[in-house]
Fold:
Amino acid sequence: MIRKTILLLIFSVLLTSCVPYKQLEELGIINTRGVDKIENNQLETTIIAYQFDAQSPEITTTVFGIGNTIKGARENAGYNTNFELSPGQIRLELYGKETAEDGILEYLSTLVRDARVSDTMLVAVSNVTAKEVLTAGQEELMTDVGQLIQSLIEKEVQEYSIPKTSLQNYLRIESDIGQDPVVPLIGLRDKKPAIVGLAAFQNDRLVGELPIDQAFLINVFLTNTKDTPLEITLQREPLSDYIYNNVSDTYQADNPENEDQFTILVKVLKGQGDIKLKNIEDLHFEANIHLEVDLYETSELLSIKDEKIASILEEEMAKEFERQYNVLFAQLQEINSDPFGFGIIYRINKKDGELTDTEWREKFPNVTVDFNVNVDLMHYGTIQ
Amino acid sequence: MRKRLKRSSKNIFPLKIDELEHLLMREFTNSPDLGFSKYEHQNKKIAVFFITYQVQPDKVENLLLTPLLESKKDWSNTSILNEIPLNSGKEYQLLEEILSGLIIGKVMIYLEDETAVVSYDFLNKEKRSLEGAETESVVIGPKVAFTESLVTNLNVMRWNIRTPDLAIEEITIGKRAPREVRLLYLKSLANETDVNTMRQRLEDLEVDQVEDINVLMQYIEDSSMSLFPQFHTTELPDRTSYAILKGKIAVLMENSPSALIAPSSFFSFFESTEDLYMRWNSGPPLRLIRFISMFISVVLTPMYVAAVTFHYEIIPTQLLISIGQSRAGVPFPPIFEALFLELMIELLREAGARLPTKVGQTIGIVGGVVVGTAAVQAGITSNILIIFITISALASFTAPSYQMGTTIRLLRFPMIVLAGILGLIGIMFGMCMLIIHLLKMTSLGRPYLSPIYPIHFEDFNKALFRLPQNFQHKRSVSLSLKDSIRFSKKKAQEKKDIDE
Amino acid sequence: MEINVNVKSNLRIQAFYLFFIIVSMQIGVGILGVPRLIFSEAKQDSWISILMATVYIIIVLFVMLLTLKQYDNADIHGIHLDVFGKWLGKLFSTVYILYFAIALYSVLITYIEIVKVFVFPEVSNFVMGLILICLTIYGVLGGLRVIIGVSFVFGVLANWILFLLIHPALQIDLAHYLPLFQASFVDLLKGAMASSYTFMGFEILFLVYPFIHNKNKVSISSILAVTWSSLLVLAATMLAIGFFAAAQLERREWAVLVLFKTQSFPFVERFDYIVVAELMMVVAPSLLFLMWGLTYSIKRVYKVQQKTTLYITSALFLIGTFFFEKHFETQQVINFANQFGLWLIYVYPFVLLPFVLLKKRLNKRKGARSS
Structure:
């Protein structure tokens, strides 16, 4: 009796089941998507999708669509392909510069609303239009540009050279009052896609571009960095006594404009940044950065014979970092974007713990910060 | 048994030799086989009768007839029993007993006008000799397997468990063609309720005949509708004796080359005696592999079907590309593709099992390699699925019990169908149903999932893994045995300081 | 109907399993959405709200146990009969039966909705309802022993998904918890109230108490269970608060489920799908217990065969899944179950206890007089 009922029920599941099949090989699986705003407030999407066609060995395809909404543009792009475009495997979302300047939250919230879309997808901004980056590269390289950009970003994120840039991270930082997101800026270098800088946001609007080598300075405050290669240019003067000059006088003539500079490449083993609010009335902050570095390469031969030289080197590095921080911070204040999260520290130290976005936007340009960098030189390889 | 006795409970003796011959010839329709010889000795008529091919004729000649006829003695039943130096002498009075005695190879002697027949055993039973196990082959440990002869099997069992504590009860089963069944257990250990339940079930069985112990198992198991075997049948005597020594009950049956072990839990089907012979730290990982492979075997192909049919999102991009490319030309939905390949594997297995070993191997190679490659090249199936199917087929063969292996293999089919209908939700539904089913099952009234539920942490040591011998001081708690302590824990785990 | 329940010795269970019974009843789909509810009241001080709720629940548990200890082996229906008499007692018992039905229905449609949002937007309510009801019928037919087995085995098996939360836990932003102690007492109370739906389920003690073999361990087992559930809810809430920005969390339904989206392994990219499927193992014990409670209560009160009510109510629930397909309708059902349960579970034991004590005193006096 029981078993008969169960059998009956199972059969009725069989009969009534109306979950439509979404077979892998019948889908166009979107891997990368570019979004640009064009005239009349319309959107143009550039979609790089996988499609598995027995007739063709090529699995990636690029299609374009125009519409008033993201989904509408996708539907429009769907007319170009015989596969059903589906968003479950989007790994990279690229926004054109002008689009990002008008704010990207509305596009991102579409992604979040659909539970099937991954939260770990990367978000990036192009310094031209997304279409240009995605198509120009496609012709030039004959490979999947979407994947190329993804691995570029992932590699840098793994080295902690740039901050994490997943959809979830972006949204969290964007939603946090008192902190603004930064995402990698993708441009074309020799007609190939490359990371050319860092896009600084004010809430969800693109407000400025930062040079790529300053991304690490921001990332130190966002996570504990490990093993990041970094090139840093120091003043030659304090170290000149210890630079081992085997070519004697002729050497300096080679690069006259850099003669007072000395470049080294270090690996930052550990990087930690910490912000303290010193004075809530004056909006005075103190930022302490601790870096442990290994020396890897010097532009000129340098002999580190004793502790004294090492400490001079440490000091010079710290000075240089502090200078860079001050420059960066001034620039950020100018565009009123706060990727370090000074606002969060301000909020948690405030009495009622409440802070509105507009309040912080007014206050941020008046903030003063003391950047204290502490560099520890750990090892310098097998030669002194 | 009781009924048969009732039918012929009248004493027919004394009677004349000729009358006896007549009576026997009438009862035996196959009269040519019945040897009935009459002798005159010291003016007394003696009849000796037996079924010719059931006895050893030269022994009858040498040991029985020669002393009987050459002696000058005046024979009577008692003097025969006293004088002839054979120990199997017995008196029979009832016709039914005589008939059944003749069938199993007894030689009957009747002195005219006596009130009973004297019988001696000269059984001549055709049997094969003891051989190594075929279906449950082991790498280390005893390799001998049971044979069809109950006597031989009992002999082996007695040699394995040399204690008078071993109880061997005789029960006869089958109304029309009775078979002898033996119930084996340790008197001082086995749970009395279990023994009584088992005996009850065997005695209450009212059937015409029971063909084999596997059939007997189906008659007496708790839930006959379930896919899962509820008693363990094994062809290994050492496994049987190990179970008996653990406090379980074994049943042996005439003409069946395997023993039945009860009660059996789900986990005991994944135990092999080899786990015991291996060192404690190298055996249990193998058992773990068996559990994992059971899981893989049930879930792997359905997972593929679910992911490819409904949830492409859960496949990592690189894997997605290779699966997508291999699926590209396949004309069937994944569920049919998977069912088709699973059926093919079952086909190969079945063909291999039926054919002689050497041909079977060829079939395996032809079927597996040639057809598999051709199917992929023809674009009927994707090669990634072939890998999954092969892995899950291999995994299903790791279960030490053949019956459990078959069950696991069968379970895949409903799972694939469920995955094809409702994806991961369907698989989960199947798993939930399966676990609830296992929870509902019992073996000889004991929970099937023991020691997981009801939980006995002490038994994890035996059912799921195995600790070194000095931690094995307790017997299974879930069997509620009469004596639960194997040895003193204190002595076994005595600690010594350094350099003592 | 007897006041005390005679339970055959083979149906008795160890108090150990009470832990799993209560945890599996409390932890259901509710835990996925509760961080948002608590957070929107108590903000970063939600943990205080949860602790307050836990303490209150433990007090309720003590009251329930005290009530039950006045009898030899009675359940809630027996107590109702004894205290309120035949008709009024039946009325109160019927309220309990209705509660079980509504709670069961709310669990059913919530899980269906989660499946529809996260995995299969196209699946019909009927199919999902059918498989869940199928599971429920099959389990309940096995009786209490099997249901407890289900809660135990599933309760252990489903725990692996907690390991998937390690990755999101490493990404939390500690600043989200600061500054501490900002919420007012009223807000904290509101937060505790918001967690009430999730914490419902320990009322099953009123029904299973007679089945428990070693009654001296009941209190420790049930308190541990409530503590463990609270820890789970606390962990989920704290994780969600740390992981999401405040503005995000206030908008996200089932925030805990979204946490699983960030975890990926080389062989599985997205775990939220697997977690939604695995949730069936979390939901099934609640469904089984509620269905058992429903049918068993009807048997106790109205003497109807459990099998009959099982089939009839299952059919009704199955038909019921057709209604309330919209999200806000589902929420209304949950809110109703919440309101219903709030009075019945969190307040009613305090009302019942004085009646029971009074009745006992009266009985004693009567006994003394007659002797």
Notes: The longest strand of chain B covers residues 34-41. Residues 2-121 of chain B form one domain.
